[in-house]
Amino acid sequence: MTLTRDEAWNKLALHTDPTLEDLFSEDSDRVEKFAKRLELTTGLAGGDADCGILFDWSKTHLTEDLLTDFEALAEAAGFDDMREKMFAGEMVNPTEGRAAEHTALRGVGLDTSVEEADALRERMKLLTTALHEGAFGEIKHLIHVGIGGSALGPALAVDALARDLPVVDVHVVSNIDGVALEEAFAACDPATTFVAVASKTFTTIETMTNAQSVLKWLADSGVDDPTGRVIALTAAPEKAVEWGVDETRILPFAESVGGRYSLWSSIGFPIAVAVGWDDFQAMLDGAARVDAHFRDANGRENLPLRAAFADLFYSRIKGAQTRAVFAYDERLRLLPDYLQQLEMESNGKSVTVDGHPAGPTAPITWGGVGTDAQHAVFQLLHQGTHLIPVDFIASVEAGDTLDAAHHTILLMNCFAQGAALMAGKHSDDPHRNYPGNRPSATILCDDLDAMTFGALVAFHEHRTFANAVLMDINPFDQFGVELGKEIANKIEKGGERFDASTEALLKAAGLG
Ligand code: F6P
């Protein structure tokens, strides 16, 4: 019998609460059932042999009965249909009247969109190769200006993948605070610096102001034709032309690619420049592998969907208001920032697709790196009063070449935290008591190469989409960011009065 959404949610809420300890003692096959591997190499060029990712949800409260009831929710929510629509390039973002075609950038989607993306990527490859081969003179540095989705993905990928001897030294600058740009200037030689201006709309005030300041810095440093050093990465090429960029140095991407899903498009130019084309392509291939899995696997076998089941169990059924992500890998130190935009800008909504109240939506995403975070915030995870589902992310292969002790200690600590959160430890002294029964999932990569990195990011994109479909919200718009921008514009223009507090602040800063 097919349930309605409400009936499916009500059924989920009726589940009893076995402890994690009970779940393990009742089922000796629990790990086998709740830890699943995704192989990444099958049929794809560019990856290392036998590379994959293990997703272990055994230390969460998911049970087979819960999975069955979540599958009923997915059916009630029309999940299969929505997924098909997304891959078919249909309009899945109704408030903006757009498709969401980031998977086409990886080769999975509507044929015409994939062909268009391939052609644009070829153009990007030519420009990247030209830059590497010296067609623009000797280029050692790239300053990439962009913000939000036009910066977070590139910053994360460059930080993760271009650690040893980057082909070109890339600096991603997003903040309008000039301190950020000055830091980049201090690290770059203007004579050998190129500039990427990344903005889907090519109107964002922070990016355009930063771009102007980079041009001024180049001009002040004696560079003859500063605009000749600029490459524009945008879905609004006509605006880049107006701004003064030569058409041959504009790398466009499709309007149907959302900002926070755009690192696979020309917005990823700095990634290709830093890591080289082959690794950029491997990153896309890893994402394509996850796309194929997400498109073809059903119900609980679909790993991003299963992750969404766990997310929603805690956020909707158990009332968790946050979820934490700890990367036990220094190369992924920017991942929590990236996921904050992906998850909170996508699913931080209050209304359903039809505009009705949505109930609790995205929890607050936060996190950090292990082991640092253990000595800072883990106290609260172990003994605090909040329910916080945690994801641990690590790689079996080390990112460093030092004594193996470093990586061994890193991994042992990662696994120890999950074990401690689950088991707890009883003490008659309440201050020394660890309640335990605290959930965590572990995502363990064989190796954090470019392909695995792409897969990891794509997994989170699809997990976010799956959460949205089950909650009946549109993950692809972001109207919540507009009001602040509007008021900032009004303040800049002048002539308007604001609330007394804002007026007083403007006055105190000499702006009123
Ligand atoms: O303010 C939010 C936002 O619109 C993001 O969604 C986007 O990634 C970012 O601003 C930057 O926009 P653009 O790429 O158009 O400069």
From TrEMBL:
- GO molecular-function terms, A-Z: carbohydrate derivative binding; glucose-6-phosphate isomerase activity; monosaccharide binding
Which pathway does the protein contribute to? Answer: Carbohydrate degradation; glycolysis; D-glyceraldehyde 3-phosphate and glycerone phosphate from D-glucose: step 2/4; Carbohydrate biosynthesis; gluconeogenesis
For this UniProt record, the keywords arranged alphabetically read as follows:
Cytoplasm, Gluconeogenesis, Glycolysis, Isomerase
| Localization terms from the record | Cytoplasm
Which enzyme type, at the first EC level?
A: isomerase
Chief place where the protein resides: cytoplasm
Q: What is this protein called?
A: Glucose-6-phosphate isomerase
Instruction: State which gene encodes it.
Output: pgi
